[in-house]
Amino acid sequence: MRSRLFWILAIIYSSLHHIGSGSTSTTLKRPRAGDPFDTFPKNFWQEFSSPFTDTPEDEELEVTETTTHEPFPFFADPYTTLNISTQLSSSVYLHCRVNDLQGKTVSWMRRRGDDLTLITFGQHTYSGDSRYSLEFEEPNDWKLLIQFANERDEGPYECQVSSHPPLVLLVYLTIIVPHVEILDERGSATPEKYYKAGSTIELQCVISKIPHPSSYITWRHGPRLLNYDTSTLLELI
Description:
Blueprint: H1 2-21, H2 44-49, E1 74-75, E2 81-87, E3 92-94, E4 98-99, E5 106-112, E6 115-121, E7 124-125, E8 132-137, E9 141-146, E10 155-161, E11 167-176, E12 179-183, E13 204-208, E14 220-221, E15 224-225
Parallel strand pairs: 2-11
Antiparallel strand pairs: 1-4, 3-9, 5-6, 5-10, 6-7, 8-9, 10-11, 12-13, 14-15
Domain Ig-like: 78-163, 178-219
Signal peptide: 1-22
InterPro entries: Ig-like_dom (IPR007110), Ig-like_dom_sf (IPR036179), Ig-like_fold (IPR013783), Ig_V-set (IPR013106), Zig-8 (IPR037448)
């Protein structure tokens, strides 16, 4: 700004000087000794004759804005679909491990076709079925507990994180119903068989379709439990 002011003053001075002397020359001359411009710096006329460039003193520096994004929630397990199997009448956990939750909420839903039914929200259970409950295990496991599982519990469940867009983990629960078959001493199925009174009966109980072998089997004759009936000679092999 200072150089521009000097340039304007120099033009005014030169114009007045030419008018007073009657000269028609437009050549810019250096002022004589004793002129007010004698106090100007020695390189003033060199700067004046150079092309004019003006740099605003209030020029703002360019600021590069850096945006830091918050960590986004993600499932700890490397898959978004799980298949879980459990035996009829047993208890089962559906696991949902979430990292960097950042204040978001985890919910469990039951899907039936296009319908979703809320089971849990955060650590609160909203299902009217008391067999369902939420158990949180540090550091990141939101476990849905289903007690005394029955065949109606089979199907898809969703663990949802309230992020944008929402995260969804699909868990398909399969209820395994054991298959029980009674065989005679020859290994043949015995839906009906007749024995003489006082004879020895040998029956075999074959159980299939169970995730884990059972260590406890009970025998019943109608409503009577035979395992502990001392009035009947029973040998379990």
